[in-house]
Amino acid sequence: MGASKVALAKAPCPVARAVDVIGDRWSLLIIRDVFDGICRFGALQRSLGLARNILTERLRTLVAQGVLETRPASDGTAYHEYALTEKGADLFTILVALRQWGEGHLFTEGEQHSVLLDVDGGRPLRRLQPVDVEGRPANYRNSYVRKVPEGVEQEEDRARQA
Fold first, then answer.
1. I need a labelling partner for 27 at 20 to 30 A (CA). Which of 36, 44, 83, 105 fits?
2. Of the candidates 13, 56, 48, 46, the residue with the CA atom closest to the CA atom of residue 28
3. Residue 60 domain-assigned?
4. CA-CA distance, 39 to 53, in Å (whole number)?
5. Domain assignment of residue 136, yes or no
């Protein structure tokens, strides 16, 4: 494991740790496909056009990280399927945010694209908006990150090793 991999896995920043697990494009697209009901290796490979070795490695990592799990195939065959764990299902909001950002910034006016709809009425989902504890819209201008003070991570690591 390289130094940067270790650094991200132990980083005091939640974004860095999340990127360490799901930050490459293939992992996010695999998770997207599993949300869409594509659960078998061969079907994932066809959907993504991904080389077997890369798909195998990403699936192995997502299972090891607890984002996906393997289950016996639902049709009773000897195959297995990939399913979202609760940890993986919690990524739904992230994928919706990425989708909505892409819809708003990466398509020209009137250009066709897939649309995420609610099951009950077939309507598009409302645009996501972070809110504070009182329900007021939050953005980068009215929120901030409280950083971990320098040296605290090293002290905690030493304490755990003692």
1. 105
2. 48
3. yes
4. 17
5. no
Fill in the amino acid letter for 91: L
Q: Which two tokens stand for residue 22?
A: 């799901």
pLDDT the model gives residue 154: 59
- Within a 10 A sphere around the Cβ of 81, how many other Cβ atoms? 20
Specify the pTM: 0.84
* pLDDT tens digits, 101-135: 999 999 999 999 999 999 999 999 999 999 999 99
Provide the residue range defining the domain that includes 80. Answer: 3-89
The tokens for 145 are 């990150």
User: Percent of the chain beyond pLDDT 90?
Assistant: 79
**pLDDT at residue 160, rounded to an integer:** 60
Q: Compute CA distances 100 → 21, 26, 113, 129, 152, whole Å.
A: 22, 19, 11, 11, 37
Quick one: pLDDT at residue 5?
57
Tally of domains within the chain: 1
d(CA 56, CA 24) in angstroms, rounded, equals: 14
